[in-house]
Amino acid sequence: MESEQLFHRGYYRNSYNSITSASSDEELLDGAGVIMDFQTSEDDNLLDGDTAVGTHYTMTNGGSINSSTHLLDLLDEPIPGVGTYDDFHTIDWVREKCKDRERHRRINSKKKESAWEMTKSLYDAWSGWLVVTLTGLASGALAGLIDIAADWMTDLKEGICLSALWYNHEQCCWGSNETTFEERDKCPQWKTWAELIIGQAEGPGSYIMNYIMYIFWALGFAFLAVSLVKVFAPYACGSGIPEIKTILSGFIIRGYLGKWTLMIKTITLVLAVASGLSLGKEGPLVHVACCCGNIFSYLFPKYSTNEAKKREVLSAASAAGVSVAFGAPIGGVLFSLEEVSYYFPLKTLWRSFFAALVAAFVLRSINPFGNSRLVLFYVEYHTPWYLFELFPFILLGVFGGLWGAFFIRANIAWCRRRKSTRFGKYPVLEVIVVAAITAVIAFPNPYTRLNTSELIKELFTDCGPLESSSLCDYRNDMNASKIVDDIPDRPAGLGVYSAIWQLCLALIFKIIMTVFTFGIKVPSGLFIPSMAIGAIAGRIVGIAVEQLAYYHHDWFIFKEWCEVGADCITPGLYAMVGAAACLGGVTRMTVSLVVIVFELTGGLEYIVPLMAAVMTSKWVGDAFGREGIYEAHIRLNGYPFLDAKEEFTHTTLAADVMRPRRNDPPLAVLTQDNMTVDDIENMINETSYNGFPVIMSKESQRLVGFALRRDLTIAIESARKKQEGIVGSSRVCFAQHTPSLPAESPRPLKLRSILDMSPFTVTDHTPMEIVVDIFRKLGLRQCLVTHNGIVLGIITKKNILEHLEQVKQHVEPLAPPWHYNKKRYPPSYGPDGKPRPRFNNVQLNPIDEREETEEEVHLLNSTTL
Hints:
Residues 658-722, 755-814 form the CBS domain. By secondary structure, the protein is mainly alpha-helical. The protein is built from 29 helices and 15 strands.
């Protein structure tokens, strides 16, 4: 049903009337569960569709390609709507950059005319800084609100503060004089649900009542979250980062960054985190920040009318999102550069840095955690690491890589099953079932009952005299007057061994539940669950190494640097390294991840262990597949995303990928001045192509330019409304000068202003490796293929993605085009060891069928032209 809604909404634009109705940002539609299959859907499918019944011409003569220094021949009064894009289409980066240059030249040429024009010029120059400032302010404020609300609602599952209902558990006991050091979380002001309902604070009855209320609140929060998402803003589900990456690459998804999505995602993110599901709020905060950036960009014409410029704001917004998520402004900028941004010029780097700075400043001013820090689990270590510890750090990196590879495969398999079976039709039931299983299993274990951020904080924290956690229950025979930095390694007590057992169970629970939780129809981030899994594993390894060093300090690996009574091993550091390794294994981030974790700890001396673990996790994960979790979800959903990190090594030519192919209808083209309005409208109505090459005439096939379907329909409708004498028999002219017409002929329609006068072209023998690089680096929508000036076909972004997918799956090479013959390219030497005769670098004698060939080429058969 969701897929049908998506396609009925306009993903297929097969009619003339439907092309003009663009979707608005306020339309709410569930696209997260839609598989945009390249085999069945249209993105940039300009000439790959049903058989065109309209006007078609088979080109027979060559000609030179007409080029121009300007992308568009602009009129004094541009046609409203021309140059915009439909939903689920890719922007033309080159055209958008040219539009921005023309706008900039126009402003500069007028700024000396008057003081008002100078003011407008200054406003235009500063609008970029203004929009990122507003984005940073809004992101920091919303992040603080989400943090405070999530902490309060998480504690609401266990009890309530009678003295002030808006206080969470920790805040409720701050002002109490009856709190003891051992039981600092217990105070008369805080009442559990068992105390309020049955009047018992201890005993089996109290435990069962608290258990029931915990499950009740968890299910209530999860049900409310998924209901709000399903009814009001289906785009608010999930992490949002895969879609953000796709949007930043130039794809249009109307409503994904709209105000309804922002409001519902902010509310449901709090509910989802409070429900206790194995998810985090850090990833969705990037989506929230990008929604803020998108909304504020509409206040400034420089960004509201240019999709490429708007993506510069979204890159800065994603940096602000990570800045408030982890309290890491520099890490946020690097995350935007390394992970999500497709186009990242130098000025975007500066504005991203400024947006991250403003967002972090606002969050610090709000102080949501009450510790004067930007994150809950900020820690500082004072013990240096030693060379021997690189070995367990690398082992944690191996674990992180294995976890990442397992999670990506398992989660993608489950999400694919969800999309392809009836189970995916009941998202509310799925969320309720996952929340119920999570709550039932999580409550008995104190480490899974904790909020995931609080769990990471406890695992990161080093044991000192002020710590009462069971992880710090060592047999302590030291002098209590010693300061924190001098606490030596000690033998583990019963509390530590019990905690290790509980942590092992929590590790298994987190691994399993995270696989099934990521991708359900509520806001769900992956950063915190992955960090929690790594922190649990790291803390267990750290305690093991600590006890090994204590009981075997005379071993040669410890003898030189770990003396009796010295503080040698810091288990919290192992938890931090493990968290970074597991997050790196899932996302395949490297530089930005190290900087984020470094900013969390504030210790320069731990960069080397972090780098070793993160690089190891990436290498191990890449051994099982180069895709991170976000790239895997992009491919699963079928988004048209060309990954710049992906290498193309297949030896194919542009002629092997272009359309039309053999047995396809000929190329549908427009002529420069020989077609009427009715001819063009018929071609638009009877085909599903999104663009048409424009040629000189039927006789002379010289390329003039390229016209988009949407621009043609908008221009014709506008001309009929505003110009008198435009009828169906009016001649359409794409040339600079109107041809001479009989006196009784109706008024001609000039459409040169919508014509792309310099479409990108490649020859039929251009290697696909070069074509893919052109599409990646220039952000093209389509590219025309020529041979000696004759237009043979077209390559779209969709064709590129189809070809890359077939290469990955080792599918047989695509069928050759309709005007090509397939010939074998034999080795240089024959079976007898003698060189084969050659002519123009092509072997003349045929190949014996028993011989193996190294590659195949397609040679142009001149008789078909």
